[in-house]
Design a protein that fits this description.
The protein contains 9 helices and 9 strands. The chain is elongated, with a radius of gyration of 23 Å. Helix 6 runs antiparallel to helix 7 (225-240) and helix 6 runs parallel beside helix 8 (248-260). The strands form 2 sheets. Strands 3, 4, 5, 6, 7 and 9 form a 6-stranded mixed sheet that branches. It is an alpha+beta fold.
Length: 281
């Protein structure tokens, strides 16, 4: 059996199980699966999120082309791609999963010490850790770590081993870029309590309790998520936003809780900015 037949048979088997698949070239790049886009003649970059000025009637390459339709996979222009393919890829987001791509031994050690166990499989240099659930994809979220989920593709390397675990907040938080809070040097001054004692916000227990309550409020919301996130951010900033106590770690915790409820990173940033504006921060 030829390599091309092997890869197509693998793709059809995976597609039958509900995994959206696509062919990869020997250098691990997607193909343009129509004549107009063959070898990037359309001017696109198949390894990127969008294929450039592609005018095809349906997505023909990159992650958007991934499909479970056996007729599309095995006939027409795709047949030529499979004859040239060196591997099978799939769209993790389309399959409802997220791949944490650990590119070296140090990244694997970090995952073992930080992330909950889940289904794993070996790669050429590291491991893929696969979780149930989707999120925004991002490369280089930390040294040797990429996130492959929505609008991305991953090479099929086998079923892996272990039980598929839910996508944890620790992974979602890797792509959170919390906006900086003004430092104490430029923040609006808060008068010290009578008697010249320290600002109560600088008590670790007081601040921790406030952040924990805010996380819980977001987590417990079962409706009006956008409004709940905004009101929670507003409350946190009202209590802790003027004395420089909040750090990026605190803000990342709030953003992570919001994203776990389905908020996007953009919505989180917008809500935080709007709350600051409302308070004049």
């Amino acid at each position: 059996m030829t390599l091309a037949r092997d890869t197509l048979d693998t793709a059809l088997t995976l597609a039958a199980s509900g995994l959206p698949v696509l062919p990869l070239s020997a250098d691990k790049r997607p193909f343009g699966n129509c004549p107009a886009c063959r070898d990037n003649r359309c001017g696109g970059r198949p390894s990127m999120k969008t294929p450039g000025p592609c005018q095809c009637p349906r997505p023909c390459h990159a992650w958007a082309a991934a499909t479970t339709d056996p007729a599309v996979l095995s006939s027409g222009p795709w047949a030529t791609s499979w004859r040239r393919a060196g591997a099978v890829a799939y769209h993790p987001g389309g399959a409802g999963v997220t791949v944490v791509d650990l590119d070296d031994a140090d990244a694997v050690i970090w995952a073992q010490e930080t992330l909950p166990p889940t289904r794993t499989l070996a790669t050429t240099r590291g491991e893929h850790w696969i979780y149930r659930g989707t999120m925004q994809s991002a490369n280089g979220v930390r040294a040797g770590v990429d996130i492959k989920s929505s609008m991305s593709y991953a090479r099929w390397l086998g079923p892996g081993s272990g039980t598929l675990a839910p996508l944890p907040a620790a992974v979602r938080s890797l792509i959170v870029k919390a906006p900086a809070v003004r430092s104490a040097r430029v923040a609006v001054a808060v008068p010290a309590p009578a008697g010249g004692g320290p600002c109560r916000h600088r008590s670790p227990a007081y601040l921790e309790r406030g952040i924990a309550m805010a996380e819980q409020r977001i987590t417990n919301a079962d409706s009006a998520i956008h409004a709940t996130v905004y009101r929670t951010f507003l409350a946190v900033l009202s209590a802790h936003g003027r004395c420089g106590c909040l750090t990026d770690v605190h803000i990342a915790r709030l953003f992570t809780a919001a994203q776990a409820k389905g908020e996007s990173a953009r919505h989180c940033t917008d809500a935080w900015t709007n709350a600051r504006t409302s308070l004049g921060l």
